[in-house]
Amino acid sequence: MRQMKPDKFSFLGSVFIFLLIFYFTLFGFNALTRTSDFSDPDTMNFVDIARNITTGRGLSQSALGFNVPRFSATAEIPMPLTSQPPVYSLLTALLACAGLSCVTAAVLISVVCYGLVLLLAFRLSLKLYDENTALLTIGFLLLYEPLRNVSGVAFSESLGLLF
Hints:
Elements: H1 8-35, H2 41-54, E1 60-61, E2 79-80, H3 87-97, H4 102-128, H5 131-143, H6 145-151, H7 157-161
Antiparallel strand pairs: 1-2
Helix pairs in contact: 1-4, 2-3, 3-4, 4-5, 4-6
């Protein structure tokens, strides 16, 4: 059996993976403590739905007519969720039941999904091409600002990329 010697790039690949883990630690800490922005109504609606799930009100939202083009002003609050897919809010509620706050859980899901998207992109590039291409793919995705922006806040886009 022929024994392969580790080449120079594999060492650099290991260093790159270490730096990537370090980056995600800082990215997650920064997103959870400083930069998470809830100025978009969708972000707080996801959190509100998760809070309703954890309090036993089911898939409902406290905002009357949010993202719904036609609604009755006499409808009761909480209103059933009909305008957004529930997976992100369900995962947020699941983490909230484990002891996290709904706000922290929502941001944590986005950060973890960002890491999983990069891991899947790395594995796909490695399977289709080689280690150089896989590392270059990760480098470019790390620099892709729209992906980074939606992964540090409570948006469902990074979760949606996994499917």
